[in-house]
Amino acid sequence: MTGQAMPIPPAPPAARPTDWTEEISIFQPRQAAFWLFAVLLLIGGVSFVNEQLSFANASTTAWLVGLVLLALYAVPVYLLVNAVDLFEREPRSLLIGALLWGAVIATFLAGHINDQWASILQKVFGAEFTRTWGAALIGPGVEELLKFLGVVVIYLIARAEFDDVLDGFVYGAMVGLGFTVAEDMYYFFAHFVGQAGASDLGGLFEGFFTRIIVGGPYSHVLLTGLTGMGLAFYVTRPDVARSRRVLVAVLLYAAGVAAHFVWNSPLLDGILGDSPGPTDWIAWAAVKGLPFLILLGVLVRLAMRREQRWVREALAEDVAAGVMTAQEVDVLESLRARRSARKAVGARTGPAGERLVARLQHAQIALAIASTGTEADRTARIAANRELIGGLRAQLAALPVGGSPAEAQAPPTVFAPTHRAPVEGLAAWASPDPAGPSTPLAGGLPLEIVARVADWAQVRASNGWTGWVDGRRLVSGS
Amino acid sequence: MTEASNPTPPPAPPAAAAQVARRVGGAFDPATRRQTVIVAAILAALFFGTQVLDEALPAAASPGEIATAAGDAVPIGDGWQITPLDGWVASTHDSGSGIRLEQGVVVVDLFPEPSNSASELAQDYLDQALKANATQLTASDIETATEPGGPAVRFSYQGIFQEADGAIEGEVTSIVAGGHGVVADAWSSQGDLGSALGEIHQMLESIEAAR
């Protein structure tokens, strides 16, 4: 079925802030915020380049090794943050802009303003107080504001790209990642290699342990992720009363500042004892940072569920019309399930089938995105995606399975049970992801294994129902 | 020509600057112009405002503060003297020997010590003053430095000390001339020393024997 004959659903109401079809680059000369960003990047860039050159001159080896060590942290975090954004990936230029704000602009401004505030604190409260509490008061106060304003600037440059709370997390995390990377390189040289650059790689690895292994999970990615979600909640939820949006934004900003304060403050330093070892440092960091990391994880999960709900709504009509199955919609909701579905088909039809399923999944997401759009060509986009999905299905069906063409995605039509559910029963999921809701299967239920992915088994019942179960618990024989 | 037929003079043209501003402002999306100006104003207030506030506040008087005018040399002891840069507050050290220079969270302790070798002086300071009081300490190799006051060496360290909260980072410079030495220990909480090292090195270059 191509779906060409299907009616195009009406565009979502204007109040719904989910036009995922927008794809905006950072180059927006009509936006004053773009020029503010450009000017600050130019000014901060001079300072940034000079600082990196001074590090490289002090010890080229240490600088290069430092870059590699930072990449070991930054690349997975970048990919992880993007992976959270399951459906509507943010434009790369905006993500790079957010990284640059954190790494170049915010660090440049913070370096100057932090020094000024340290001097002010000393004059008002004295040197001892400033030495003890300066980092805890100045860092959160100044740095969180500078990074938060970076997310605001990205928003002002490309407002249409802020569709949901999750986008605030993505841009906030990117600003935080940029800040962390630049700050860590500074720390590597200032505290572990030495400003004079003794090429002390041992010091560099010590810095890597302290800054990345111990502090990495609780870095600026976490802090600005929280504050960015607050901004996004305020600007993307017109359905919520303004006073409540302000309250949520303020609370999330306060959470980011509080996390930074707790991290920088001497509170709880007693955990370290007189001679702290690696496990003491890791425990110390967990006590200080883990509660905030859990808070962020919960908020991101809630935001992801909200997006998943939108996708279900956007595709409901196509599911009802048979353009997609409900199970395929389930699979779209998790990267792992998408991969498992590709592998399952790949195992039966080879790499060509795996690639076709990947394209099919992209087309299905594009259909959901097109359905949320309000653009003039929305109807054409929806029709084109439906046609593409139909075409890909036809190609999948034509792929040979065990030497004969067959329906690549659909399970065989004749039920041939190979296993049974154990007597105590068995839980089943729509996709190989235990995070989703499960369905109990009665003990002894005859089942046919359709596909296997690691310990997961995709099974079919006599009535055509399919689901994923723990393959290790299946009992052989019908 | 009658008075009635006289043309009404056109309104005065707006000032050129206002015209330019209006043209530039008009080129931007009005939906985000005001918010962008607010962001720019906050950044400017943070950047310049804190500087103005810092300069407006008088330096805090501390016990034992040594009153100096800008450019005045301050005696360290044993004939040594240093010229603090503007913004650095000098006071006599609690130990009774030497002086302390402070700016914000950064401290430079200077102690006169009789010695014939800058390396030995630095090593003694590392062993007897730092290692003896630290619960954890990492120090770089002692390397030759160039100071006008005499032969000098330098090393950096980071550690945890019983009398200080949190991790401390520091840089020690020792200078020796004619059997007299001086140790300068510049330190702060971790993360704050790097940006002050330029000024500290500049002040250390002003150390001279005035005996």
Key features?
heterodimer, A: 478 residues, alpha+beta, SH3 type barrels, 3 domains, five-stranded antiparallel sheet, two-stranded antiparallel sheet, 13 helices, 7% strand, globular, B: 211 residues, Protein Transport Mog1p, Chain A, 2 domains, eight-stranded antiparallel sheet, three-stranded antiparallel sheet, 4 helices, 11 strands, 28% helix, 34% strand, elongated, disordered N terminus
In short:
The complex is a heterodimer of chains A (478) and B (211). Chain A is α+β, with helices and mostly antiparallel strands. Chain A has helices at 32-58, 60-84, 92-125, 127-157, 165-193, 201-214, 220-236, 242-264, 278-321, 326-332, 335-349, 351-372, 378-398; strands at residues 400-401, 404-405, 419-420, 426-429, 438-441, 446-453, 456-460, 466-470, 475-476.
Counting DSSP H or I runs of 4 or more residues, the number of helices of chain B is 4
Class from secondary-structure proportions of chain A? alpha+beta
Query: Can you give the mean pLDDT of chain A?
Result: 84
Q: Note the run of SSEs of chain B as H and E.
A: HHEEEEEHEEEEEHE
Query: What top-tier CATH class of the largest domain in chain B fits best?
Result: Alpha Beta
Rg of chain B to the nearest angstrom?
28 Å
Main beta sheet of chain A: 5 strands, antiparallel
Low-pLDDT segments of chain A: 1-5, 12-19, 195-199, 403-412
Q: What would the average pLDDT of chain B be, to the nearest integer?
A: 82
Sketch the topology of chain A as an H/E string, one letter per element: HHHHHHHHHHHHHEEEEEEEEE
* Beta-strand segment tally of chain B: 11
Shape field of chain A: globular
Count of discrete structural domains of chain A: 3
